[in-house]
Amino acid sequence: MRINCEVTVVSRALAGTNCRQPRAVRASLGIGRAALGDNGSLCFHLCTASNRHGSKYKIVKNIDGVFTKFVSEGKFTIRLKEPKQDLIVKTDAVQAKSFLQLPEVSIKGYVLHNVDKPSHSNRGGGSLIYVKEKLQPQIKTKRATEKSEILHLNIQPHPGQTIKIVLVYRNPT
Hints:
Blueprint: E1 2-11, E2 25-33, E3 42-48, E4 55-58, E5 63-67, E6 75-80, E7 85-90, H1 93-100, E8 110-116, E9 126-132, E10 138-144, E11 148-158, E12 161-170
Antiparallel strand pairs: 1-2, 1-7, 2-3, 3-4, 5-6, 6-7, 8-9, 10-11, 11-12
């Protein structure tokens, strides 16, 4: 999959120095396989007008975090372990959500359950929880207001045994 977006590549290695913040540039960000010499591993491919061949960033065991607080506005950040860089991405909200739901970005063997803030909220955000697939999670309650978010799941680790998981987030303001 490939999305057209604006990307800012921030080097965390230069965070302590007195360097200026890089600018966002129009780019194409995609997920694909690297060259055969790299064992065909998955990578992000970032192409810009000044770098038409693009930069490749390994995905497998290289994603330190994905920050999705403002995904409802089409903004997210991918933190890479090597090189120590953050890819700050701004695109259409629909494209951002579909890009982040790809199996290459998700955690293998886990199911993602989330509750987003109401669409009329201008702050974006939401809460999420990952549960192992084999536990067969069942959503019981999924509710969000301006001040709180509630996600209630039931899991069955063994037949006849049910564990309730309740995630509650209350906005500090």
